[in-house]
Amino acid sequence: MAINWFPGHMAKTRREIKENLKLVDAIIEIRDARIVRSSKNPDVDDICGNKPRIILLNKSDLSEEKVTREWIKNLSKDNIRLIGVNCLTGEGLKGIRPLMNDLLKEKHGRMKEKGIVNITDRVMVIGIPNVGKSTFINKMAKNNIAKTGDRPGVTKSKQWIKTKIGMELMDTPGILWPKLESEETQLNLAFTGAIKDEIMDIEELALKLIERLQNEYPDRLMGRYKLTELSEDPLENMNNIGRKRGAVISGGQIDYNRVAVLLLDEFRGGKLGNISLERPE
Predict the structure, then answer these.
(1) Which residues span the domain enclosing 48?
(2) Rounded Cα distance, 240 and 255, in Å
């Protein structure tokens, strides 16, 4: 499962983010609520420094609400606020403006003292690929300005987008890091689609997901695929899922590719229920 890649545009993006920080008042960082730790670029704290930041825990409709609340409590700091959102439906996005006002209250106060009433904040939007940046920006702008896609790496260069809530958003391409050292991080990113399926062995990936779910969410796995019991062997459970869904080819063999695609699509679509693959330590 070793993954080692660093496309040139990602190295360029990292440099541009640091260079453009002086142009913005704050940062909105987007992570996946199901994998809050794995969907954080480990360089982000160094890149952002002390710049005020709001962390959106996107796809919170797919995570366990209790776990998401724990993350919000665990990661909140003086210059960092968190909120659970669903960028696709817009749920939770109304909470961004009050958080931004709180983070930038000193700057707003100085501007009001100078007689400036209509204040527009300039905000940089960052996050790893396929975490929902473009979907968020489109929702905030109420039109499809930013390109979107269900595959990582759609956005290639920065652009400014106006909103109706006193913010101008700077979009940036998704940025990953040169090498993923942790197998758990690799798997979590792959499970949620942040890493392209084309560079993965999706049958092995699906087997790993079954192993994780049978240990942490056995009832969800059994309920979704109508299994009467679970084996300790993930491969046997994969076979049973294949039989239940009719993924059988000639000779009674299981079509593992079909099972893998089915399982990953249903997990990513929330059809197995609310699942949090990571919890605060």
Answers:
(1) 8-171
(2) 11
- Report the CATH number that the domain containing residue 123 is assigned in CATH: 3.40.50.300
pLDDT in tens, 118-140: 889 999 999 887 889 889 999 99
164 vs 141: CA distance, rounded Å = 7
CB environment 151-190: b (16+ within 10 A), e (fewer): ebebbeebeebebeeebebbbbbbbbbeebeeeebbbbbb
Nearest CA to 59 out of 78, 35, 94, 24 is that of 35
Whether residue 213 sits in one domain with residue 158 = no
Q: Give the predicted TM-score (pTM) of the model.
A: 0.88
Element (H, E) at 68: helix 65-75
Q: Residue 60 has which token pair?
A: 């919170």
DSSP helix/strand/coil, 138: helix
Distances (CA, A) of 244 to 100, 162, 210: 49, 49, 15
